[in-house]
Task: inverse folding
């Protein structure tokens, strides 16, 4: 067996472990990729395994449709994972069919020897005749815990459009430190109306022009909106209450505000500090629990990007629907409401609060806004703050002072992450 084939089987073995870890053990890709077992593999094996695992998590539904006609009975989960992985590679990777099938049979022999002949037979049929069923299949459906909630909030047709988005990969968005028309050209990117720059094919991020000099940072176009709605002014005292790894802190600091960046996670704040160093921007960094920390003085403005189910980021994190479930929602919602109250108490009279979550669930967005307006009579929606947003689209507005972004928006530009953003002012 030549070098390429050996490497190919190693990458597929690692990819199989990743998808099984997600589907069976509910481990995140980030957790597994940080583990020495994965991190110790050669870089090209890791890169290929990561790509293959993500493609499989995104398109397993299509793979099931393509192999169904040739499966006599339902295979056990580990064998199904292997069949899905190989089918996705056969149908979407352009890899030579014999190499994919041989590698899958090798992997089947290692762990599930009695299934190897079946794996061989099914994959040969898929390679020859699976294309039509693959292409005709509905994009992979979200798990029921999430699909039901999203259908209730957005309707079945819109959820189907989101599922189509979740099958594909996402472009790379960057936020410039300064508005510089030459930057998009230098990066061969497209300026977006909201101020971000979008790159269709990025390659290695750290090799791009302006990375080392800190002229920009990676941040989804939707994730860049909350800080723009807050519109920090030079010299203002601004608190970024859940700050790490710091994309929004960098935006606030780039506006010249005196920023305090607080987060409970020391390790995530390390990344924030690295980002500040690279960009040459300044912020006071505080490691603390937002619910317990007492500020020396109230703030002019606060950005609260609360912890949430992160369901708005599925197109970048295809493991997420499988590792989370409905049990995660209640505790997140309670924590967010407590943080909103804490933030409101830390504001000067007349101060601005922007609350946001990268969630698609109304409980973590629209419901939070409704709840806080019922609970508190000192916070009021600030529609003017939203109206000033560059590139604002009518379809994003979700009531006074509120924006709702979903991944099916901007289809002609390549989509964007899901977010809920509310702008408020303290009486
Ligand atoms: C959505 S992330 C923040 C992303 C960040 N704003 C950015 O733009 O890079 C939520 C953050 O909340 C932090 N967090 C969770 N519970 C917290 C608490 N009780 N106090 C402070 N931070 C907390 C997490 O560590 C996490 O970094």
Result:
């Amino acid at each position: 067996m030549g070098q390429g084939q050996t490497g190919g089987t190693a990458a597929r073995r690692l990819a199989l472990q990743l998808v099984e870890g997600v589907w069976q053990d509910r481990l995140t890709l980030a957790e597994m990729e940080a583990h020495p077992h994965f991190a110790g593999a050669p870089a090209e094996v890791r890169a290929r395994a990561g790509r293959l695992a993500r493609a499989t998590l995104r398109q397993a539904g299509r793979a099931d449709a393509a192999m169904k006609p040739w499966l006599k009975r339902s295979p056990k989960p580990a064998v199904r994972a292997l069949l899905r992985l190989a089918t996705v590679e056969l149908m979407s990777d352009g890899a030579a069919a014999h190499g994919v099938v041989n590698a899958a049979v090798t992997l089947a022999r290692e762990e599930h020897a009695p299934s190897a002949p079946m794996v061989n037979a099914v994959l040969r049929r898929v390679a020859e005749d699976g294309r039509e069923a693959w292409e005709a299949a509905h994009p992979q459906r979200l798990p029921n815990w999430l699909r039901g909630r999203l259908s209730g909030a957005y309707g079945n047709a819109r959820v189907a459009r989101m599922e189509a988005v979740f099958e594909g990969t996402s472009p790379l968005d960057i936020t410039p430190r300064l508005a510089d028309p030459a930057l998009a050209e230098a990066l061969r990117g497209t300026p977006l109306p909201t101020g971000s720059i979008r790159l269709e094919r990025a390659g290695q991020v750290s090799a791009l022009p302006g990375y080392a000099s800190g002229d920009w940072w990676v941040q989804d176009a939707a994730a860049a909106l909350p800080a723009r709605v807050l519109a920090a002014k030079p010299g203002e005292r601004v608190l970024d209450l859940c700050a790490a790894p710091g994309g929004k802190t960098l935006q606030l600091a780039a506006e010249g505000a005196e920023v305090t960046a607080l987060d409970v996670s020391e390790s995530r704040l390390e990344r924030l500090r690295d980002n500040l160093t690279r960009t040459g921007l300044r912020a006071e960094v505080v490691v603390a629990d937002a619910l317990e920390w007492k500020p020396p003085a109230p703030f002019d403005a606060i950005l609260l990007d609360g912890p949430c189910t992160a369901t708005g980021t599925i197109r970048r994190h295809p493991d997420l629907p499988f590792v989370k479930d409905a049990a995660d929602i209640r505790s997140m919602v309670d924590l967010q409401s407590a943080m909103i109250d804490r933030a409101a108490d830390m504001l000067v009279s007349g101060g601005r609060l922007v609350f946001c979550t990268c969630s698609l669930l109304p409980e973590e967005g629209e419901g939070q806004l409704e709840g806080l307006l019922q609970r508190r009579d000192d916070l009021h929606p600030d529609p003017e703050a939203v109206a000033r947003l560059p590139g604002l689209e009518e379809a994003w507005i979700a009531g006074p002072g509120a924006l709702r972004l979903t991944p099916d928006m901007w289809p002609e530009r390549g989509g964007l992450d899901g977010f809920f953003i509310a702008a408020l002012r303290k009486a």
